[in-house]
Fold these 4 entries.
Entry 1:
Amino acid sequence: MIMKSTILKIFTILLWLLIGSGLSFLLVSGIVKEQANRCKAVQIDFLDEKLINMIDRKEVFATLWPGMDEQYPIGKNTATFNLFSLEHHLSKNPWIQDADIYFDNQHTLHINIKQKNPVTRLFTAEGYSYYLDDRYNLLPLKQTDHIVLPVFTNYYVNPLGMKKSDSMLLSRVVGLSDFISSDPFWMAQIESVYIRPDNGFELSTQVGDHVIDLGVRSEWEPMFKKLKLLYQKFSREDAWNRYSNINLQFKDQVVCERSGAKLVSADTTHIDSTQLVQKIINNNINPKYKPQ
């Protein structure tokens, strides 16, 4: 009986030792696993290739973790990160178009950001100013911005929301901005674009004392091709200040107005617009053309 009791005690002790060892192993394994699942680094990538970023790394951190420094996420368990919530916070930044946040196999937190693309700067009659992106979003100004873009003035912000006519206007604004920005000559020459109450466009220029009337058209290339032909004449004759208004809003017409006197008209129904401008240049006449 004594032998049996001793063996039972030894077995019980061994059993508790095994249980203790197992618990210790599980505890150590849990700690090691928890340490392995901690955030090792944070990598922020801007997916668009822009010369100037309107948001930077510090602003991203301030949006995601207000009041914390850039070391805050490092060392925290990856399971505690609500990635969907973090993406939602970034989406509230008016300059961010899209954000994708995830952990890779090395437990690095990746934050991929696509910025909105401003194409022009708008000024209202009241003196307020915004940027406009290629999706017709109004973007706020920032103290750190240094973007050179086409400028449009007298823009009206509809307090009741955007209507169809507003969308059509912004479509023309974006189209003209893209055209101007793509040509260094026009980017340098055009000082601003005035938006009339009828949504027609008038251009103010850097060189020459004249206003260019585009009306409500949106065929930019043929209009500016005619204008460039006129500018060639101005350069040859040093006539940059001869005209007060150049009207390009009619398909087959160029209407030039001297200071104090309008030009005479002629039929252009069957005359190519390029030939028409060349006729004005070659004959040095001042016609205001009217189709029959």
Entry 2:
Amino acid sequence: MLRNTFIHLPGVGPKTERSLWDIGYIEWQDVANRPRPRTWGAARWDDLKARVGESEAALLARDAQYFERRLHASETWRIYRFFSDKAAFVDIETTGLSGPDAQITVVGVYDGNDVHQFVEGIDLEKFQEFIEPFELLVTYNGKCFDIPILRNRFRRAHLERKGHIDLRYVFAAQGFSGGLKGIEKRLGIARPGEVAQMDGYAAVICWFRYCQGQTEYLDLLRQYNAEDTRNLKPLAETACVMARQKLVTGTPLMEGANSDGG
């Protein structure tokens, strides 16, 4: 989907993107290689071609942040397929404070195969090195919560250089509102055992009980965070499929809309 995308370019909105598709300019290469359509002025078309070349260079350089910066948050799903092999699904737990000064207790990162967790007072600082190879961060409500807090704590990780998909905005554009657990329930994703009834407040309580010496509560907090983190991948894939189907219905891109979220 990313090479079919034009709305990240200056002066191109959803209607213009759709009109390009309708007259056969389906991919960036169509703009680069085919003659200018009669409805476009020469200067405007030359600028579009230059921007398309810039986009291709950014994609080949695997610069996910280039596209995130130019897309509305609800449209960042278009990045996902190309960068999914270097995607980190991230969720944090805190002491309950708000704002970037909140104290992190646990960071969970799902790499698509395993959940890796970093705990305050044990190995939290290792997160900074671990996250370095990833090119794309996937969160739920991370623009407002997780990522600002992580940036404040781990300044040398340069998280601002990575792409970011906040699924909250993608799902909102599909008519899904509310928190992560509510979205999971609507999509039939169930949580096991004790963590099924837990929420963010319960996670804070677990941390304080652990700090008071009840070490079993750290295991429970880890389980809760692992579910938060691991579930982000199926949620991302579902959101991408839904968003793509909605976008391409009735367009020349409709063929293959049900195949994947890319």
Entry 3:
Amino acid sequence: MTSLQIPADFSANLIYLNSPDGGRVAISPYGAHVLSWATADGDERLFLSPRTAWRKGEAIRGGVPVIFPQFSTTGPLMRHGFARTSDWQVLEVTPVSARFQLADNDSTRAAWPQDFSVEYLVRLAADRLEMELVVSNRGAAAMNFTAALHTYLRVSDIGDVAVSGLQGCRFSENGVIAPPERDRDAQVSFLGEVDRLYPRSPSELRLVDAGRDLRISSRGFPDTVVWNPGPERCAALKDMLPDGFRYFVCVEAAAAAQAIVLAPGQSWRSAQVLSR
């Protein structure tokens, strides 16, 4: 598990899951944020920045932030929406799973006047972590949103890793609105900043990392975002160490290229699964 020093007001409320094989997960109800996933051999598979602010109202840098109802700055809301900086209700906890809910309230309606609920299930199994998101429209009008699981995967060193499974897929770079180009490389490697959105991407990818390969699967999410800030942008991030970019890759299951539209009473179900 992560060895970071987490303030008492966060650590006191953490939820821990334990799989029969010895795997462990730590989750904060603040943001329904998965902070840590260690497999049975003790290998931590998620990155969490030691410079995270740990203040209410600010995002946690690392783990798995839940992005909703807006991806990045693609709309009028705060960057990446309010879900990652909201307190979620804990609905149910078992030894291997936890279920959370975020529903509209005075604070969310002031920013986004929609009647909604989001349920988030985190489930741990042998060498496997599943995160499932269900968004429901509880209002009388159609509801549009974008979303992602902004997963920070810990890696041995950024120069030695790659993401496979995206060859031939179209992508846009750095949020530029332009006709997407096609990825012709066999793998996505990281020689500098990488910020790519792959619309309608494959549901099966792999993080290749010197014997620590990880399978990354998704359901319901149509897109994939691959991100690493590189040295220059990382140095400008106040909640990252200057060399922090070397130790993670974000591979995000996303609905970001085009908004999801839900009619009244409809729900949208999606998931990301990490497995060895």
Entry 4:
Amino acid sequence: MEGIINWNELWKLMRSGSPWKISLDEPAGSFWDKKSKQFNESMMQNRERTEKQIAKIGLAPEYTVLDVGAGTGRLAIPIAKQATSVTAIDPSEGMLACLQENMEKESVKNVVRINKQWEDIELGVDIEPHDVVIASHSLSMLDIQEALAKMDAAAKKCVYLFTFAGRWMDGGFCEEICGEKRSSWSDYIYLCNILHDMGIYANVEIWDSEYEQHYASLDEAVTKFKEMYDLPSEKEGLLRAHLSKILVEDGGALCLKRKSKSAMIWWQTNAHERA
């Protein structure tokens, strides 16, 4: 029955219809340049989530690690404290600028930043193989099979992918405010099937995950959501009503709690052992 479904082409179809498709139409990284500071503020709050992810990665002090879509360094910086070095690749100059600021705050110096999208990286030219390759919620490449093959070739020991299992944790935001359900293009099952078709029989672990974001007030929450999702002013009333329903009081602030299923897909890069 092999070949009935072309999972890579299905991924392309789902990806092109995602709410983030604007990032495909703009110069690489520019979509996130505008949102890098807010994204950094949000992501760097989730230290517990970061610690859980890193605990699942097999690291050793002598390892070199490649972080594909490193963003502002949520994983790259703590990993750099445990490994020999980290190479952080990201197409957004704004994200990498925040990463540099975070490195300075954490006194981390063994992270090399490369401002390119993964599709444009040439092995042996831009980078050499690393012991471990990771990609955490950064698999937005249109040709994901080609991207995964390059990650496999870039890893001397293991590749670790982090994504969602099932529906993305938007708390009903896209459906209620934008009038569309969040596309399931990032669901782990696509990646597993694509890898299987490539002859890579990956391991999968799924667990419950909770994300928290704190806001000083409802006004601040509304402002930040409008900026992150590029919402027009006429949507503000709907957004305010939606956030009023889902934000909860927490220590004098307002907290957005979202639950989801997280997935880790990983494999050892021993090509000779594949069928």
